[in-house]
Amino acid sequence: MKVNVGDGLAVDIALNRTGQPPGKLADATLYFTTGPLSGLCVLGFAVWERREKPGEINVTMPSRQFMSKGEKRSFNLVRIDHDHDPQTEDTHVYYAPLDRLRQRIARAYQDVVSAPVEDAEDSAPPDDEDRIPF
Predict the structure, then answer these.
(1) What values do phi and psi take at 99, rounded to 5?
(2) 119 touches 16 (CB < 8 A)
(3) Helix (H, G, I), strand (E, B) or coil at 34
(4) Which contiguous run of DSSP H or E holds residue 117?
(5) What digits encode the pLDDT tens for the residues 9-64?
(6) Which of 9, 63, 84, 103 is buried most deeply by CB count within 10 Å?
(7) How many Å apart are CA 21 and CA 52, to the nearest integer?
(8) In 10 A of CB 100, how many CB atoms?
């Protein structure tokens, strides 16, 4: 279900109905609805139940895994602009753009799970032509 989150952005929430992996609640896709990026989307966001705080959720960003010196690491694909220096700025202010994005995705998830259940006909999967061909 796609939710408009403002500022030319929409979030599509695909609930995890299988329960696998444990704790994963949904996948999320960020859509640009206006401006020069209109028509593009970013895949790979996920909504998880927090392990240490049941009932609270966490949003993870898309990332790519790689090996470095025999150690498995990940590289976040959505990151802070490197023109900002975290050593000289308040850490809270430095991470604010990522926090705002996480909050919008979390709010979209809450909107989807709190929405009334649709009729079976209305909740049918979209036609293949509406899906991203990946």
Answers:
(1) -65, -40
(2) no
(3) coil
(4) none
(5) 999 999 999 989 999 999 999 999 999 999 999 999 999 999 888 889 999 999 99
(6) 9
(7) 17
(8) 11
What's the Cα-to-Cα distance from 40 to each of 12, 27, 60, 80, 131, rounded to whole Å? 13, 17, 20, 20, 13
More confident: 124 or 116: 116
Q: What is the pTM assigned to this prediction?
A: 0.76
In this structure, what token pair is assigned to residue 90? 């308040």
Alpha-carbon gap, residue 79 to 98, rounded angstroms: 7
Give me the amino acid identity at 133.
Answer: P
Give the containing element (helix H, strand E) for 112. helix 96-114
Six-digit token pair at 11? 């979030």
